[in-house]
Amino acid sequence: MEKDEIIVAVQEAIQRELGQYKVNKEVHYLDHLWIKEMREWTDSIKSEFWKTIVRTIIRAIIFLTILGFGIWGVKQIGH
Fold this sequence. Notes:
Layout (H helix, E strand, L loop, with lengths): L2 H16 L6 H20 L3 H31 L1
């Protein structure tokens, strides 16, 4: 086999075996940007106090959302 034939054979084997795991480059890049932004944001929250405040606010929003859907669901069943 010539060098070019070997290269093509290896490329085809890789495509056949790993092709299903191929990730869109644009989406992958955007994911990395998002992770970078989140890392920078968390680094900016230096104090454990502020981290606790932010976590509490997020948990309260989630709780109130779930509670709201629960109340809405009970009202729907009652009608």
